[in-house]
Amino acid sequence: MAIKVTMPRLSDTMTEGTVATWLKKVGDKISEGDILAEIETDKATMEFESFNEGTLLHIGIAEGETAPVDSLLAIIGNEGEDISALLAGGAAPAAAAPAAVETKKEETAAPAAQPAAALPAGVIVVTMPRLSDTMTEGTVATWLKKVGDSVAEGDILAEIETDKATMEFESFNEGTLLYIGIQEGNTAPVDSLLAIIGPAGTDISGIADGFVAGSAPQAAAPAAEETKAAPAAVAAAPVAQEAPADGGRIIASPLAKKIASDKGIQLTQVKGSGENGRIVKSDIENFTPAAAAPQAAPAAKADAAAPAAKPYVPAGQIATEEIKNSQMRKIIAKRLSESLFTAPHYNLVIEVSMDEAMKSRATINTVPDTKVSFNDMVIKASALALKKHPKINSQWSADAITINYHVNIGVAVAVEDGLVVPVLPFTDGMSLSQIGASVRDLAGRAKSKKLLPSEMEGSTFTISNLGMFGITEFNSIINQPNSAILSVGAIVEKPVVKNGQIVVGNTMMLSLACDHRTIDGATGAQFLQTLKQYIENPVTMLA
């Protein structure tokens, strides 16, 4: 049955979008996860994936055109299906007749078509969204609505934890929240039944039962009790950091609280622009702390109270704490396990003299408004070395090895919940100062969970640096689909031999983990030799 695809709301402030590029044309086959188009929002140009499969039957917004959120973007359905009713503004069930004609396919089509055909007027099934390119499941961190609440378009329904961040999920529909399919703290695959919205009093028991039976098994009984249980859970979820003068609670999203904590902002000083005065991330980002000085005493009180939250454990007493795995931690575990157990790793280690690099960096940083780190120099040298040794810049598949002649270096950044890898597109064409500025920007936004999914895609090679922690040498696990990852250690002052004399020198260890399916030992060794030459003679990187 044909499905309307509308202009998505890709940011919390987006009211309209511009179709920058269509990646599919009418008549093309669409699979779930295919990129339909690139859409320009008020913040960035983002890839928009399809959550459905079928044939692209209609494009409603041409390239370069701008349209409001929820405008008809496209229609996906069965090849040759009549979509005249949808184009005329009719509802999706109007397209059910062609499905009934296909008697031979009735048995397989019935499970998918039945829930849609059974939807009463005005009822919308909301599924677990795919909020990042790598998301396969999500955890409901907090419900901001409870069963029976009125929902307006743009209201925040819930906060959903993905493999990369905790994100606010807005409603694209209006009505009454009739059913909650995934309770707070529970995890479910993308496209599982998240909620049902429709006119108040509508009987949706059959819809919930049918949908759940076909995807994510859950008992329908708890839904009837949610009207009593949900308010307490929702009320307790937004934790107030400070009690306001009137004794009320401060309601803020986890992301807003995290950013406020990082910036040292007291939530009592922030006026929320969200629903019911709720503080959202934009309120924190736009906050000016001019009036925050009088609150120094409460801030000290909060800081002083923080250590008390940890239980005191007497010596000799066994104590444990169980921390539930976040989506990011689950994805890290899954991907690194797959990488280590599927790609035959081997490591090559080389020692590099850093004397000239230290002199060059000191000279470069005398230029006003310029700040270059040793890591920036390693990134630049790696990009140039990859151009000379493109086999390192490759990826494996069962049928072929893909050699990438463009260089997109991913830089591993440690964040509170784990590790993310923002990407520097076309790194070989960037200057040292451009690399430095970009890395600082990406790392800063990674730690505050402001990176866009598109900024963590497309790496061809990865660099991980633990030198700032005093680690002199280590081996990393390959960030697939890359074929190699470079581990960068600390710079160490030690005795070295130069021209037959023992002198004080500065050296650094580099370890290259390679996938033996794509990179032979000699190839990896040649790459490291070239990399060493660039780092030990920084002037060659500026030629």
Q: Briefly, what CATH class of the largest domain?
A: Alpha Beta
CATH superfamily of the largest domain: Chloramphenicol acetyltransferase-like domain
The separation of the N and C termini measures: 60 Å
CATH architecture of the largest domain: 2-Layer Sandwich
- Averaged pLDDT, please? 80
Q: Residue share in helices?
A: 25-40%
Spans of at least 5 consecutive residues whose pLDDT stays below 50 are 91-117, 212-247, 291-308
Write structural notes for this entry.
- The chain is α+β, with helices and mostly antiparallel strands and 543 residues long.
- Helices cover 27% and strands 26% of the residues.
- Strands 17-26-25-24-20-23 form a six-stranded mixed β-sheet. A four-stranded antiparallel β-sheet has the order 1-8-6-3, with no helix packed on it. Strands 5-4-2-7 form a four-stranded antiparallel β-sheet, with no helix packed on it.
- The longest helix is centred in the middle third of the chain and has 16 residues, at 221-236.
- The chain starts with a strand and ends in a 7-residue tail after the last helix.
- The model is unreliable at 91-117, 212-247 and 291-308 (pLDDT under 50).
